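Hi team,

Below is the intake form for DUF3841 domain-containing protein from Loigolactobacillus rennini DSM 20253. Please confirm the fields before the structure is written into the shared record.

FORM ID: S-0412
PROTEIN: DUF3841 domain-containing protein
ORGANISM: Loigolactobacillus rennini DSM 20253
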Amino acid sequence: MIVWTNQPYVVYQKLMRTGSVSCDPQKSDNLNSTILESNRIFQRAYTWMTEQLRAKVGPAPAGVTYPIWAWYRQNFTHRRPDFRERHDYADQVCIELDITEEDILLSDFSAWHFVLNDWYNNDATNEKEWEEKER
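The structure came back. Fields below:
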């Protein structure tokens, strides 16, 4: 399965030098926010997502705490992220990865925000279902 991840150029350099990379929690802006509450919320949500991945694919490789985010689809199309729309780092590169389906956890970017913000997510697809699930 082809996916893409936007990373700082230094991550690409490490990948070329060592052949592998993983998330370094000490360098993650989201995991090390200067706003304590933001940091706590993201760590809780990211840990939850990590547990979902572990339940699907098994334990992480030695030394890996968190997975790397990657994109499978954008705007309902299987295509790489467009730097004009998504700019995460001043020196970012888009790295294409080929990962077996068994080793990847797909998630919905919009639904992820329900986990991140501790919102209720009713998966109803119409008003009747919504009302039934809300009872």
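SUMMARY LINE: Residues 88 and 119 are 25 Å apart (CA to CA).

Thanks, M.
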